[in-house]
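Sample entry was shown:
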Amino acid sequence: MLPEIVLHGDEKKRFTGWGFPVVLGFVFACGTNASTDAIVPFDRPYFYAQWLLFAVLFLAVFQIGFKIVQMGASDGLTKQASKTNAFSNKFLLLRFEYGQSKKSKFKDSLRILAAWLPYIVLLYPGVLYWDTGDQVAQFFGISAFGQKPGKIWDHHPFFDTYLYGGFIWLGHAITGSYNVGIFLYAIAQCVFVAVALACWLSYLKERGVGRVPLKICAMFFCFFPFFPIAFMSLSKDITHAAFFIAWLLMFMRLVDTRLEKIKHPSFFLGFLILGLCSSLSKKMGMYIILFCLIILVFGKFRIRFKAAVAGIAAFLFAIVSIVLPNYYYPKANIVPGGGQAAFAMPIELLGRSAHAYPQDVTDSEKEVIESYLVYSWDQISTQYNPYIADPVTGYKLRKGASTPDFLKVWLKIGLRHPMTYLNGFVCLESGWISFSGNDKSSVSYKDVKKSVQYPVQLQMDASVYTVANEDTLGKLIPNKDKNWAQEIVDSITSMLKSIPVVNVLTYVAFWASVFPTFIAYLLWRKRKEYVTAKTMFQLLPYFVSAASLFVYPVSRVTGGGHGGDATRYMFHTLLLAPIVMGLLLSLKKKPQKEK
């Protein structure tokens, strides 16, 4: 029997929450134009027609989605459940148990791995991205990223460099093959994630999610090809997602117990270690975790438990941002990453203004800007690209530069040209808020404006083979052409992206902005009956991690060695989506207060 859970019918309030699709429609009208023409045409009537069409589309989709979720949360899927169970019982692979015992979780994790096995075999030894290859090269003492031999640049977290390099070194030490080491890491990552997902399915069953929604969730994890392809890859974003999903499960249990779980030594240690791994594997990961922990401190929990959570947050920040950079990096030949990553978006908007109004800057403003950035005002003007901030950031800032002075100048220029900043922001983030764009994402702004545009679909890009820099990792692992096995995997994702309706699942914007907005829409519609402080605490990491996408220096696939960046950045939103839906289906109706 399914418990009485979220989203029973409220037909009389059919248009409740209409503001969510309307706002999302406006955002997509902006993003679609910016992604195609690098500008938002607020002065053109067709823009408002686009807004209306997007709003109507999202309103219809959200209402249909609401009814589907209602069915999943009630007895509306009883008949479908019997058919699904009858089919799945014929196949051992599909007989998920969702049990609480270690044995059940072990079996379910094996079922996930069995479903991924064809991809694991076909993608042997695994996939290294260009930047990851340079990271590994630095581990082996090869010069990369402009650093001297033996130096490791922490722009790409040193933790990941050690992790990947350690596995590859071990494989080479045992077998004499670097590829074996790559495969060892890929297998370890797949196993870790499969166990974490099995634990998540068990947790959702424990919360009361019905068998059919659980089955759909399990099948999605098993057979959506982007999961095994991603976890066969060595990338900081994928590695962080693996640690984060395990940490998040512990976060859920922490909130379930009103933080009392923190007093158990084993839980405390595991929560701390996973939080540290999540924070070290990706710079943004630490800020997401810290924000969620700090918000918990404001909840109605016991003081001593809140103090313990605050202590964990302080410990993570101290280790990652103070202790390691000041005491470990110098001894380990680790070069700190530049501070420009935190200001990539503001610098990009300044580049837009410099390009549009190259003469509208005072000498004093130019002096402050050029004392902060490695490039001059004229250089950021010519190097400005609407879709990626790296060309104007220069990957570093000048030493001793004043951040407050720079931000003051940045604000002054923005007040003079607010629409320029707005256009720059929407262009930079257009990959998250549009389904299509132009094919000129690797060229300058002036080339985008004057060239013929050919629309492309902004879908997830699944890299299936290693492309290494011949001057770095290529010295150890020479590049090879795509083989027949990798071509099979590539053809599977290409086919999925070409099938109408089904290919909606492959659009970056669907997982980055449409699905999070839909979740917010569902919560708003049932806020009085089902949504509690506990609900919001537990969903906070998902919304914060989705919002964090809007501070990245790129939001779409670009040229110049940046292919696939958007997919890796937003992958965690795809990974968390079925879990978040399961959490919504597990919400129980609030008890009525006695009058």
Notes: Confidence is low (pLDDT under 50) at residues 1-11, 559-563. Residues 340-427 form one domain.
